[in-house]
Amino acid sequence: MSAQPDGPEDRLRRLTTIWSRAVFPVTSTSLTRPEFEEQLLPLARRLSRALRARAFDAAEGEAVGAALVDAHCTAPEALSRSLDCVDAYLVLYCGEDGDQEDLRARSSRLQHAMAAGFARALRERTLAEQEAIAQAALRAQGVVAQALHASEARFRAVFEGAAIGIGIADLEGNILQVNGALLRMFGGSEQTVRGRKVQEWTHAEDAPQIWRLYEELVRGEREHYHVEKAFYRPDGTVLWTNLTVSLLRDADNNPQYQLALMEDTTERRLLNLRLRYEATHDALTGLPNRTLFFERLEKTLNSGEGRRFGLCYLDLDGFKTINDSLGHAAGDRLLVEVADRLQSCATAPGEMVARLGGDEFVALTCGPDSRREVDELAARIMNALVAPIRIDGRELTVRGSIGVVEGPVGERSAAEVLRSADITMYRAKSAGGNRFELADPEADARAITRHGLTTALPAALDRGEFFIEYQPLVRLGDGSVRGAEALVRWLHPQHGVLGPDRFIPLAEHTGLIVPLGRWVMEQSVRQAGKWRELYGDGAEGSLRINVNLSPCQLQHPGLVQDTVDILERTGVAPDALCLEVTESALIGADDDVLKPLHRLAEMGVDIALDDFGTGYSNLANLRRLPVSVLKLDRSFTRSMQQFPADPVDLKIVEGIVALAHSLDLAVTVEGVETGAQAEQLRILGCDTAQGWYYARPGPPDRLHELALADATG
Question: In the prediction, which pLDDT does 213 show?
Answer without folding.
Answer: 92
